[in-house]
Design a protein that fits this description.
InterPro entries: LysM, LysM_dom_sf. It comes from Flavobacterium ginsengiterrae. This is LysM domain-containing protein. This protein is about 30% helix and about 30% strand. With about 350 residues, it is α+β, with helices and mostly antiparallel strands. It folds into two domains: about 5-85, no CATH class; about 95-350, Lipovitellin-phosvitin complex, beta-sheet shell regions, CATH 2.30.230. The strands form two sheets. Strands 3, 4, 5, 6, 7, 8, 9, 10, 11, 12, 13 and 14 form a twelve-stranded antiparallel β-sheet that branches. A hairpin with a 7-residue loop joins strand 9 (about 255-265) and strand 10. Helix 5 runs antiparallel to helix 6 and helix 5 (about 160-170) packs parallel to helix 7. The longest helix is centred in the middle third of the chain and has 18 residues, at about 190-205.
Length: about 350
């Protein structure tokens, strides 16, 4: 007659209570950990907590070991499912990050914080971006509109601020031309803006009196003198420069390359930065594609030749794009120059749909 050994009964019942892996010939601790996609230390630790003393895993499996107890959080099938969820960014030929212009029709919240020495100011507004058309040369036409502007959480109420607001109304809707890489290159509706300005100018002069208003009108007249002067006056628009920055380009095989970025940080000048532009190959947990630009300021003033220390500065921008349309969902941009005093701009742009 066959009698079941009590120790065997106890051992089998322990393994019945857990998820287990059946040890095959040739299996080692490391090979099983690799097969299951778990850390070998964690595999051994969890098994040793619940197994009989005789089945403790030391440096490796004992020759008679039949089962390995698995953590329910990391079964082999569950781990495979997790790996399936890791999605890579889909690129075009030559590692091109697509610019799907006709899918862009969104409202954004924009916030700019400027720091000059001890002076800190914050500007907030809503901006809408709408694709209108694409021509045979793959140039795109967009319409830009801006809402109420808040300065340091309040609506501006000084004469200069009111003048600026009235003048800004003339610009919108603003129609701009964007190239195939998503970079803003021109203004499309100059004649329309100029016509609006001629009508609004008289109303402004009737409402605002005095030397301040006249001088402001004189300066504005120069900006609206031609399409070229208007474009020159708008190059310092933080939203247009950050949003239409031309990030939809071909990347190298390792999805990173050196690049030059120009940004309107200094007064009447373009600040130059040498950056590394990196495309993250993996879609993040929010289903967004990330493009990052990071680098240093290039001092082009020639100060070193005159015995002055060169200016230093940093540039960092992170773009988060929709995984399907490649539309911008969010931008975090910060650039700075430091010499006698710090000049810094921090820009945050985020889709209101999110």
């Amino acid at each position: 007659m066959y009698f079941l050994d009590k120790s065997e009964e106890s051992e089998e019942s322990v393994y019945d209570k857990h998820l287990t892996y059946k040890v095959k010939k040739g299996d080692t601790l490391q090979s099983v950990a690799d097969e299951l996609g778990v850390d070998a230390y964690e595999l051994r630790r969890y098994h040793n907590i619940y197994c009989p003393l005789s089945d403790l895993i030391e440096a490796d499996f004992k020759s008679y070991l039949k089962f390995v107890i698995l953590s329910p959080k990391k079964t082999f099938e569950a781990e495979k499912e997790e790996k399936k969820k890791v999605q890579k960014v889909s690129l075009g030929s030559n590692y091109l990050l697509p610019f799907v212009a006709d899918r862009i029709n969104r409202d954004y919240k924009a916030q700019y914080t400027t720091v000059v020495g001890d002076q800190v100011d914050t500007i907030e507004m809503e901006v809408s971006v709408k694709w209108l058309a694409t021509d045979k040369n793959n140039y795109h036409l967009f319409e830009i509109n801006k809402g109420v502007i808040y300065v340091n959480n309040t609506i501006p109420d000084t004469v200069m601020d009111e003048l600026a607001a009235k003048t800004a109304e003339v610009l919108y809707p603003l129609k701009i031309v964007v190239d195939e890489f998503g970079k803003w290159i021109d203004i499309y509706n100059y004649e329309e803006i100029d016509s609006r300005w001629k009508n609004v100018k008289e109303a402004i002069l009737d409402y605002f009196e005095g030397e301040v208003a006249e001088k402001y009108i004189e300066q504005t007249e120069y900006a609206f003198d031609s399409a070229e002067t208007l474009l020159e006056s708008l190059v310092s628009d933080y939203f247009l420069r950050a949003f239409f920055n031309g990030i939809h380009v071909s990347y190298t095989a390792n999805l990173a390359f050196k690049n030059e970025v120009f940004f309107p940080l200094e007064k009447d000048e373009e600040s130059k930065f040498e950056v590394e532009q990196i495309l993250d190959p993996i879609i993040d947990e929010s289903n967004l594609v990330k493009v990052e630009q990071k680098g240093d300021y290039v001092d082009c003033s020639g100060g070193v030749s005159f015995g002055f220390e060169p200016w230093k500065g940093k540039y960092k921008a992170s773009y988060f794009l929709d995984e399907h349309t490649y539309c911008i969902e969010k931008i975090d941009l910060e650039c700075s120059i430091e010499y006698d005093e710090e000049i810094k701009v921090m820009i945050q742009i985020e889709s209101l749909e999110k």
